[in-house]
From TrEMBL:
GO terms for cellular component: exosome (RNase complex); nucleolus. InterPro entries: Exosome-assoc_fac/DNA_repair, Sas10/Utp3/C1D. Keywords: Coiled coil, Nucleus, RNA-binding, rRNA processing. Belongs to the C1D family. GO terms for biological process: maturation of 5.8S rRNA; regulation of gene expression. PANTHER family: NUCLEAR NUCLEIC ACID-BINDING PROTEIN C1D, SUN-COR STEROID HORMONE RECEPTOR CO-REPRESSOR. This is Exosome complex protein. Residues 5-32 form a coiled coil. It comes from Pisolithus microcarpus 441. Residues 120-173 are annotated as: Disordered. It is found in: Nucleus. It comes from the Eukaryota. One of its GO terms (molecular function) is RNA binding.
Amino acid sequence: MSTDATKIRKKIAKLNKHLDELESQLEPLLSQSLAETLVRLDTIQQAKIQVVIPYVVYDLVFVYLKARGIDPMTHPVVRELDRVRVYFDKIKSAEESIQKRKSGLDKEAAERFIKHAIAHATNAKSAENEREDGSMDAAATPTPGPSTSALERVPPKITSKMLERAEYERNLK
């Protein structure tokens, strides 16, 4: 019996230690009102706190029931813990979608950048042609909106790497 009592005392000491750690971690949160805490946080962090609080409470009820010798698996608190876990999953999926939006390519923005660059290059070339002859070249007149002819008028920039690659491919043949 003394070994059982020793095991129980060790478990109680361990539980007491974990509860003290929990209390010290919750102290910053409990030192001010929930509204004051939430004001300083962004939306996702607010949602996390709103879900963590009931989870901690239900988890403590679960531990209390277990400590009292009641099987917590038959108690409604288990359904509540499962319900709160669903909210954790929803928050996680919302965070992932935010990350995808931040890291994903914005096709519309990319198209705008490309159209602007093409129009700018076309305008610069037509201005250059106008300065050279004093009159506007009909072939260099910019066309409104994107078109294949506007794409053809932008001269490709040939880099030294491109020249080296072409030389390498010629040598291979």
